[in-house]
UniProtKB/TrEMBL annotation:
Family annotation (InterPro entries): Ac/AlaTfrase_AlgI/DltB, AlgI, MB_O-acyltransferase, MBOAT_fam
Localization terms from the record: Cell membrane
Record's keyword annotation contains tRNA processing: no
One function term, GO molecular function aspect: acyltransferase activity
Name by which UniProt lists this protein: MBOAT family protein
Keywords from the named record: Acyltransferase, Cell membrane, Membrane, Transferase, Transmembrane, Transmembrane helix
Parts of the chain that traverse the membrane: 6-22, 29-55, 75-97, 118-136, 148-167, 188-206, 226-254, 328-345, 357-379, 399-418, 438-456
Chief localisation class: membrane
UniProt GO BP: alginic acid biosynthetic process
Membrane topology recorded in Swiss-Prot or TrEMBL: Multi-pass membrane protein
Family the entry assigns: Belongs to the membrane-bound acyltransferase family.
Organism: Leptospira brenneri
Amino acid sequence: MLFNSISFLSHFVVFYLIYYYTSDRIRKYLLLAFGIYFYSQWNINATFLLFFSVIFNYSLAKYLVQVPGKNKRVLFVLGITANLIYLGIFKYFVFVWGLFSDLRIGFGLSGLSWKPEIILPIGISFYTFHNISYLIEVYDEKIPPCKNFFTFAIYDLFFPLLLLGPIERPGNLIPQIESKQFISKENIWNGISLFVWGVFIKSTIADPFSRYVELHAESFETLEPGILWIVAPVIAFQIYADFFGYSLCAMGLAEMMGFRLMNNFKRPFFSSNPSEFWSKWHISLSTWLRDYVYIKLGGNRHGFLRENTNLIVVWFLAGIWHGAGYGFVIWGLYLGLCLILYRIMKHYGLIRFESRLQSFFGIIFTFYSFSLGLLLFRIHSPSDTKLILENLLYPPKLSSLPVMILVTTIPLLVFDLWQEWKKTDRPNFYISTKPYSFLLMFFFLFLWFSLFSPFGKQDFFYFQF
């Protein structure tokens, strides 16, 4: 069930009416039941796999605090390894098998005739990282293990963020699950406004942009010279509207139920350098990698060279996390090198963003370096890389600029500019308990949707991760 579908809305309305009018104790069971039902709509077999992961990590964490000394560390390492193997089998085994086959061909041997067919469970990267962070927090004694199995099961099966995150920290979400949820009128109106805005930008920007991208990037061989200078930023806005839209829906649904999720995006396209960009884009993943990988590797505590080595390791893992393929690995390394290049120039005083003009050019450069990097997602062979570079050698034709694309982005850009002006920490429409403000916003969005949105729906882009 897509968030922007009649099927989901009809199910959620029924669920929410029961949830709102029942006791807090019954709400816990409703959350778990709806999470299981929601996930099972994608694949019932994957639901059993997810529940196995829940039981394993809940049991391991409870036993972890009872084991003394070195045995505790051994058990912890085994637990993390088991989660990574679980993720690796379902997400990376097919890729590694194909890579091994390609290597055999490269050495003059025959390729492997048998090809494994393994279904990728939706959201596996997100809930596996959920479980790894939980085990780390318990091992480091930052949080106690859940005493109640249902509490941990809700943490893993909390349906607003089950498929695409954000990768919520156990120290934030579990205490909310354990406490009583108070739902005010402000929660309801703010939640609805976030959900409506998320569905709007998904339907009017991400979906039509997806069709444009597929039309112009299906085959690099037949592209008009220089067109990728235009296609690249369209991909950037497509993914931003898609993933930001989902995050808004998740935040809105959670707030309507009395929960507060972390903000996953903070106007990233207004960032003037790569370091600032990654503090505002997919915040839950970037902070997860910072806290559980970068800092664990030593962070910036062992000199400038070691610091940058740690960064490239982190970004290699970020690329792998996004998908099993050559393009994802190259993409991760590319972004890591962009960040390291910026840090080197800053370290030696070669770059400063002091004036507004310098910041403006910094925003343009940061946005385009990110946008061009997204073309790497579509690399399937070394020849694709060559075709991309050859296309970018030519300037784009103004006649190729899609005017409708520019018009469609106006609401999102205006909203982000407004939030930037307000300096908000999380998206806010300031509707609170004033429903007429919401009705005005809803009318505007409905009008824009009627004018520019195509009929039909696309899966969320990050479902593949």
